[in-house]
Amino acid sequence: MHIPIDLTIHHVGDDVVAGWPPAKAGPLKLGFNLPHVHGPATLHIDVMGTQAEHNEVFINGTRVGHLRGNSSTEEFARTELKVPISAMKQGYNRIMIMGGLIDSQPGEPDDFLVSNIHLHAAG
Ligand SMILES: [Ca+2]
Q1: How far is the CA of 105 from the centre of ligand 1 (A)?
Q2: Alpha carbon 68 to chain centroid distance?
């Protein structure tokens, strides 16, 4: 079962970056519906322009991992995260992507793009 969550490009962060859509304040929050939950799933997120080590991803408040690092500003790279069955539920589910801080610039939130967010689920 292939579930598109949000295929558009989102800018997570706090800066104005030329050529990027404006950043929204705070973490990126999206939702998706699951008709049923039969097994673990894989979450796909394309990512570009990261500097922080850990840009975390949560499903319904459960941390499922962090985005792979991709410092390129020209090409997206795909992150694949395993989502345990316990993190999902039938009906409406929430996903949150929380940008981290850049290690070499204390207190500076990372700025990056995510796109093509979708889920491959059992059943
Ligand atoms: Ca920043």
Answers
A1: 9
A2: 10
